[in-house]
């Protein structure tokens, strides 16, 4: 019975996101599993118009299919010069067969003649925790930077190699996971969620 209290369903199929989230949740007394681990194969039909809507919908959808706490996230890159794009379409910005490389090259092409002072961007992460189809907690994390003129670095995933973070004087692709997570949008959101979960599990473990 005790083991059940500590299970947390992580509703993501993105391996890069899963690695970062699991690393940042390691201080919690939880066993992280995926919907697939529980035999849940039904995909969530993502239709939201914001990161918050998508994360909430995904979390509620999967929480209705198990008895456990369910954590979902939606995140992506928002470039001011592009009107907030790629936004919620970050993962599939370059089309149905999108890859990280294709997405990066599309952004670089669209920003090719844009001067440095107009290349502002931010990563946004929205995390939603729910249980039995009911919202438990919602948090958001952001980090601001600029779009680099070319790819730099081989770390991370997604748009990390073109997201230049000024305090580091490097892109996220040039720093290791621990250094990135210290300041990243996902790191900031997960620290908020971790603080909440520590209190939640202590006061209401069931």
User: What's the total number of strands?
Assistant: 7
Kindly identify the CATH topology: Maf protein
Structural class of the helices, strands and pairings?
alpha/beta
Q: CATH architecture, please?
A: Alpha-Beta Complex
Helical content stands at 25-40%
Measured between the Cα atoms of the first and last residue, the distance is: 10 Å
Q: Would you list the SSEs in sequence order as H and E?
A: HEHEHEHEEEEHH
Which value, in Å, is the CA radius of gyration?
17 Å
Spatial order of the strands in the main sheet? 2-1-3-4-5-6-7
Outline type: globular
Please report the number of helical segments: 6
Instruction: Give the count of structural domains.
Output: 1
Q: Tell me about the largest β-sheet.
A: 7 strands, mixed
The average pLDDT is 92
CATH uppermost class? Alpha Beta
Question: Could you characterize the architecture of this molecule?
Answer:
The chain has 206 residues and is an alpha/beta fold. The chain has a single domain (2-203), classed as Maf protein, CATH 3.90.950.10. The protein has 6 helices and 7 strands. It has helices at 2-5, 15-24, 51-63, 100-110, 177-183, 185-203, and strands spanning 7-11, 31-33, 69-79, 120-131, 134-147, 163-165, 170-171. Strands 2-1-3-4-5-6-7 form a 7-stranded mixed sheet. Helix 2 (15-24) links the parallel strand 1 (7-11) and strand 2 (31-33). The longest helix has 19 residues, at 185-203.
């Amino acid at each position: 019975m005790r083991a059940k209290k500590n299970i947390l369903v992580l509703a993501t199929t993105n391996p890069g996101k899963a690695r970062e989230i699991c690393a940042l949740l390691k201080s919690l007394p939880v066993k992280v599993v995926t919907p697939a681990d529980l035999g849940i194969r039904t995909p969530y039909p993502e239709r939201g118009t914001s990161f918050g809507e998508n994360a909430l919908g995904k979390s509620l959808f999967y929480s209705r299919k198990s008895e456990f706490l369910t954590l979902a996230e939606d995140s992506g890159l928002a470039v001011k010069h592009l009107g907030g794009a790629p936004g919620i379409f970050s993962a599939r910005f370059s089309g149905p067969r999108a890859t990280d490389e294709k997405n990066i090259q599309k952004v670089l092409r669209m920003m090719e003649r844009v001067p440095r002072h107009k290349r502002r961007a931010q990563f946004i992460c929205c995390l939603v925790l729910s249980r039995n189809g009911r919202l438990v907690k919602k948090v958001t994390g952001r980090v601001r930077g600029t779009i680099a003129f070319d790819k730099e670095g081989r770390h991370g995933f997604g748009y990390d190699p073109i997201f230049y973070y000024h305090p580091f004087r490097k892109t996220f692709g040039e720093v290791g996971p621990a250094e990135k997570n210290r300041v990243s949008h996902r790191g900031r959101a997960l620290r908020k969620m971790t603080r909440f979960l520590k209190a939640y599990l202590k006061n209401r473990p069931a």
